[in-house]
Amino acid sequence: MDLNADLGEGFGSWRLGDDHALLDLISSANVACGFHAGDAATMHRVCAGAAERGVAVGAQVGYRDLAGFGRRHIAYDFAELRDETIYQLGALDAFCRLYRTRVRYLKPHGALYHAAAHDEGQAAALVAAISGYDHELPVLCQPGTVLAQLAAGAGLRVVAEGFADRNYLPNGTLVPRSSPDALVTDPEQVAVRAVRMAVERTLVAVDGTVIPAPVESICLHGDTPGAVRCAELVRAALVDAGVTLTPFA
Questions:
Q1: C-alpha–C-alpha distance, residues 50 and 147, integer Å
Q2: Engineered SS bond to 138: which of 134, 145, 157, 216, CB 3.0-4.6 Å?
Q3: What is the pLDDT of residue 102?
Q4: Does the pLDDT value for residue 52 go beyond 70?
Q5: Cα end-to-end distance, the chain, whole Å
Q6: 40: part of which helix (H) or strand (E)?
Q7: Rounded to 5 degrees, what are φ and ψ at 82?
Q8: Mean pLDDT within 207-229
Q9: Coil, helix or strand at residue 89
Q10: Contact 32/76 with Cβ under 8 angstroms?
């Protein structure tokens, strides 16, 4: 099983999350590429740390929305979203190359992640960007979404992702962040949910419904309170359950 987290989400003097500590605990890093968060210095620092630890680097691409942290929906023209995605991929890949590695996958961030799950136009723009830039790049996203379907149809590898620190609705979608119960904040509960996904391939929705979770990668949000403690408990619980942690890419 892969364990991923969102990293590099600071900007300039602003820091969000403990990237250094999380890199010691995860197997894949979703690195902000400068549009919703991150800047050149931050990308450079995270890529260096990931290369040193053998952590796979993925491009966490987002809307051009630093002020809103990429969590506000933007109606994009197809070509503009395609090109801005390629731009972000190239920027992060440049820093990876300094350490004789490369971007290993793509994952959308925030509002783009949710839009691509159901918006065919935005999902198609992401698929076009990946296909044009590097057809071998996997797409990390929720299973069964429009993005997953279009990516598979284009011959891209789709890696199913589950969230240990987010609550789910009975239909398998995430509880909106506007809801007070969107996040799971108890580190021990997060660890239990992660083991269940990895071992039983299921998760429990907010109403108690057990739903399938055929995931290859489990996500922890690096910007949530207690993220490092959650990652420590999740990693320990997975190892105790006999789960080997390794990058999917």
A1: 27
A2: 157
A3: 98
A4: yes
A5: 11
A6: helix 40-53
A7: -60, -50
A8: 90
A9: helix
A10: no
Considering only CA atoms, give the Rg of the chain.
Answer: 17
**Residue 60 in this model has a pLDDT that exceeds 60:** yes
Q: Which two tokens stand for residue 246?
A: 């390794």
Per-residue burial over 34-63, b = 16 or more CB atoms within 10 Å of its CB, e = otherwise: bbbbbbeebbbbbbebbbeeebbbbbbbbb
What is the pTM for the complete model shown? 0.94
**Cα(130)–Cα(54) distance, integer angstroms:** 23
227 in Cβ contact with 18 (< 8 Å): yes
DSSP 35: S
Phi and psi at residue 95, to the nearest 5°: -70, -35
pLDDT at 226: 81
Structure tokens at 37: 């968060």
Q: Assign 174 to helix, strand or coil.
A: strand
Residues 6 or more apart whose Cβ sits within 8 Å of residue 147:
108, 116, 117, 123, 126, 127, 139, 141
E strands within the chain?
2-7, 28-32, 56-61, 103-108, 139-141, 158-163, 202-204, 210-212, 217-220
Whether the per-residue pLDDT at 156 is higher than 80: the answer is: yes
Please name every residue paired with 105 in a beta bridge, in sequence order, or none if there are none.
58
Under DSSP, is residue 235 helix (H, G, I), strand (E, B) or coil? helix
Contact between residue 58 and residue 249 where contact means Cβ atoms under 8 Å apart: yes
Tens-place pLDDT, residues 87-102: 999 999 999 999 999 9
> According to the model, what pLDDT value does residue 16 have?
64
Give the integer Cα–Cα distance in Å for 28 and 30: 7
Q: What is the DSSP letter of 58?
A: E
Q: How many CA atoms, within 13 angstroms, populate the side-chain half-sphere of residue 3?
A: 30
